[in-house]
Each structure stands twice: as C-alpha cells, then as structure tokens.
C-alpha cells in the first residue's frame, strides 16, 4: 500500500509583493518567498525591520494580495478566493498583532471585541455570544467577569490575551503572531509564550511566529525561515538554524543576540576574525 502524499497545512510559493510609488520604480517588499508549515507546528520568521516579514504575514492572511505567487491552504490556492470563500478562509486564519492596545477598539468592551470575528463570520454561538466570550477569556487566563470592561482597564499582557482570545474564538487552524510579544515586558513575554504553547497542544493549532528577537523564536518555533531584503536566505529546523547557521546574514543576526547558547560563541568569534 502506498503512503499518502504529504500535504502541509500551508505552503507559500514564489510570493512577490510590489508597492507602486508615483513617479518612482515599484518597491519589491517580498521577492520570491517559499516556505511550508506543517499542522500543529510553529514556523518562526525572523529578520530585521523592513525585511518583509510582516508583508509576508499579511499576504498569508489575505489582508493584502500578492503581486504574484500563491498561498496554498490544505492544498488549495487561497489567493484566488473572494466573497464567501474568502470569509471562510479568514475564519481558519487569524492574526495577533504587535501592539495589543492599538489592535483593540478602545470604544468597545471586551465582549464586543472578542465576539467580533463571530459576528463578521455570521456564526451563531451556542448559549449566546456572552457565554462564548466568557469561555474564551477563561481559556486565556482572564477573569470572565471583566467582559464588560474596556481595553484601557487592562495591563499590556492582559490586553494581548484579549487579542489571543479574539483570534481563537472562531477556532482557527492557523494563528499568525506578528511581533505578538515584542511590546511586552520579559516576564509577561514568558507568560504569553507559555499560553501559546498550551493552546497549541490543546487545540492542534499551527503558528506563524514573526519576530526580530531570535531568543524568543528559539523558545517557540519548530522551524525557522530567515528573511532579508524580501527573500528567504536560510530555513530549516530550529536547532539547525541556531546551532549551525550557514548564511552570513543569519550569523550576523545571531551574533547580536545576548549569549544564551555557548555554541554561538564560535559564530561570534568567526565573525570577529573575518572582520579583522
């Protein structure tokens, strides 16, 4: 009996995104990116500011359209979806943004914020939206009795948990975390990362975790793609990327990380010799 062909949850093929500027040559923010993401795994996407990480994430979530290339979800190209089919896809892929306060409507209560994806999707909630919201709040470690409060009444870590609850309420298959912990204190970062790992095991979630902090990526990612100038310059299993980087750009990123793994010292030393 033949083994069924492997189909990743998500596959990006030759993604290109150009932004047109009046009177100037189009700027290519994403330039032929390819990667795959397996079910129940986390892909870390790393690179410096302006490398194309967030633009890639927005294409995957269909917040913007690619200039060319495709995004396959369960083997189907979703860049061609529109209308109800696109709405269904967006129920399967949710985003947690960098700044928890700017991504939450300050004029809405937590109940309104968390239930918004359900309302957008036109989904009915067993027991009503309020019941579902309270369950979602409890799941991410928030007090369900605070559902009538507003975002400004919560700490940064709590506000980010609201964003996570909002993403999970439609039971997605993929959650894109775009610098989701970079605005948080280190101790709060650890709490949110633990929460994300627990939720991944509990709900069979896949993550795309975008960050410039490689120490954070190493804690949560199974595989890593390193992006520079809109291109993937290196990708592979987490430990291979961190312990034996091959591309000079990856080595440069790692050399800037505070010492966590003694093996990185050889990378730094090698870079230092080359520069003398």
Automatic annotation (TrEMBL):
Residues 10-254 form the ABC transporter domain. One of its GO terms (biological process) is transmembrane transport. Keywords: ATP-binding, Nucleotide-binding, Transport. PROSITE patterns: ABC_TRANSPORTER_1, ABC_TRANSPORTER_2. The keyword Transport applies. GO terms for molecular function: ATP binding; ATP hydrolysis activity. It holds the Pfam family ABC_tran. Belongs to the ABC transporter superfamily. This is Peptide/nickel transport system ATP-binding protein. It comes from Actinopolymorpha pittospori.
């Amino acid at each position: 009996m033949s083994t069924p062909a492997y189909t990743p949850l998500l596959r990006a093929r030759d993604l290109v995104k150009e932004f047109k500027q009046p009177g100037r040559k189009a700027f290519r923010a994403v330039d032929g990116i390819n990667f795959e993401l397996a079910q129940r795994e986390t892909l870390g996407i790393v690179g410096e500011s302006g490398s194309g990480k967030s633009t890639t994430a927005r294409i995957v979530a269909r917040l913007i359209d690619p200039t060319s290339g495709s995004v396959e979800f369960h083997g189907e190209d979703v860049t061609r979806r529109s209308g109800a089919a696109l709405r269904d896809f967006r129920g399967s892929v949710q985003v947690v943004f960098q700044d928890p306060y700017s991504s939450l409507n300050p004029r809405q209560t937590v109940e309104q914020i968390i239930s918004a994806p359900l309302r957008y999707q036109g989904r009915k909630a067993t027991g009503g939206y309020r019941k579902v919201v309270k369950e979602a709040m409890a799941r991410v470690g928030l007090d369900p009795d605070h559902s009538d409060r507003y975002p400004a009444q919560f700490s940064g870590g709590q506000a980010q948990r609201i964003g996570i609850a909002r993403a999970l309420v439609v039971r997605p298959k993929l959650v894109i975390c775009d610098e989701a912990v970079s605005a948080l204190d280190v101790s709060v970062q650890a709490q949110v990362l633990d929460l994300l790992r627990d939720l991944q095991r509990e709900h069979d979630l896949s993550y795309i975790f975008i960050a410039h902090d490689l120490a954070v990526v190493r804690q949560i990612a199974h595989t890593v793609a390193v992006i520079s100038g809109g291109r993937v310059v290196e990708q592979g299993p987490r430990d291979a990327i961190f312990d034996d980087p091959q591309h000079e750009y990856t080595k440069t990123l790692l050399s800037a990380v505070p010492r966590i793994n003694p093996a990185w010292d050889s990378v730094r030393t090698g870079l230092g010799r080359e520069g003398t």
